[in-house]
Specification:
This protein is α+β, with helices and mostly antiparallel strands. Helix content is 20%, strand content 44%. A hairpin with a 5-residue loop joins strand 7 and strand 8.
């Protein structure tokens, strides 16, 4: 008949955090509070804040029943709240609506009703198409190896050199491994540049040009050590685009049918999940929900304008 309600509680908490404008507002999950008899009762979501130095407390009950919520659940919630004097406002959220008697009962008791349900087949499609971008490393190209001056260089084909040495240890490198080792230290910059190129021209295949200045690396020719000064390379990175399975939910006030928020649930695979909350101003709020116990809000750091080929610091310029 029902789930444990934890998923619905998490979704509603995300929405409430999105709307949290007062720094004094606190949102608690599964909050235990004493009633008039001194017994602790659990509230699914408990929100406290201050208005003009008056403390306001809101109790939110969440039910993930397969059927509509019945009147006895409304009555039980009302009875529980009546014995907790701190509660000023009562909200009941159902995934699948309410029976008629439950609606009438909630009106009588001043309980606000909300629904939080899946939109069938995502009929409204209010959000942008979501794709997961996966960078795929294809390898390196060595374009040019610059060495210190040596009279033998004209006679040497660098591509034929199989072994490079370090003055710091006895390790032997191939040219490819030299490039690979150096690139690892700067991989975030290289992959970031590939992503920038994708944002700029939307092509999937990228060659990221970079230089390596190895320290103490040489090869031997006729008993002489010839030191490498610089290696010019390309890192080849392709982007794959994977459609992300998603389900859209709508959080509505049951009485006036107004939408408080929409949520897009994204399944990213490999036990990764994310949720996008769209508030009533159509602003997007991103959350990493892979770990139920440690949901993290994700910040949009930059936006890119292809018309001007510029990045904008999102946090500084889009605070509204």
């Amino acid at each position: 008949m029902k789930n444990n309600g934890k998923n619905l509680e998490q979704l509603i908490r995300l929405v409430e955090e999105v709307y949290q404008s007062n720094p004094e507002t606190k949102i608690y999950s599964n909050y235990k509070i004493e009633n008039t008899a001194g017994n602790k009762r659990e509230i699914d979501l408990f929100i406290t804040s201050f208005i003009n130095n008056f403390e306001i407390s809101i109790a939110v009950e969440c039910k993930e029943y397969k059927n509509k919520v019945s009147v006895d659940k409304i009555e039980a919630f009302k009875t529980k709240c009546d014995r907790i004097p701190a509660i000023n406002k009562k909200i009941f959220v159902s995934e699948n609506g309410f029976q008629k008697d439950a609606i009438d009962c909630a009106k009588t008791f001043g309980i606000e009703l909300y629904t939080f349900s899946y939109l069938k087949d995502n009929v409204r499609k209010i959000l942008l198409p979501i794709q997961q971008i996966k960078p795929v490393f294809k390898g390196f190209e060595v374009l040019l190896v610059t060495c210190e001056e040596n009279p033998y260089l004209e006679d040497i084909s660098i591509s034929s050199i199989q072994e490079y040495f370090s003055i710091y240890d006895k390790e032997i490198f191939s040219l490819y491994r030299l490039v690979e080792t150096a690139a690892k230290q700067n991989w975030s910059d290289i992959s970031g540049m590939a992503f920038y190129h994708w944002m700029k021209n939307k092509t999937a295949h990228h060659k990221i040009h970079f230089f390596i200045k190895p320290q103490g690396i040489y090869f031997q020719h006729k008993q002489e050590k010839i030191f490498v000064i610089e290696i010019e390379c390309n890192a080849i990175i392709d982007f794959e685009f994977i459609d992300v399975p998603s389900k859209e939910m709508e959080y509505k006030n049951f009485s006036d049918n107004t939408t408080k928020a929409n949520i897009l649930n994204l399944d990213l695979g490999e036990n990764l999940s994310s949720k996008i909350v769209v508030d009533n101003k159509n602003h997007l709020h991103f959350f990493d929900t892979s770990n139920e116990k440690q949901v993290k809000k994700l910040d949009i750091l930059y936006s890119y304008d292809p018309k001007t080929d510029t990045f904008t610091n999102y946090n500084q310029n889009n605070k509204d």
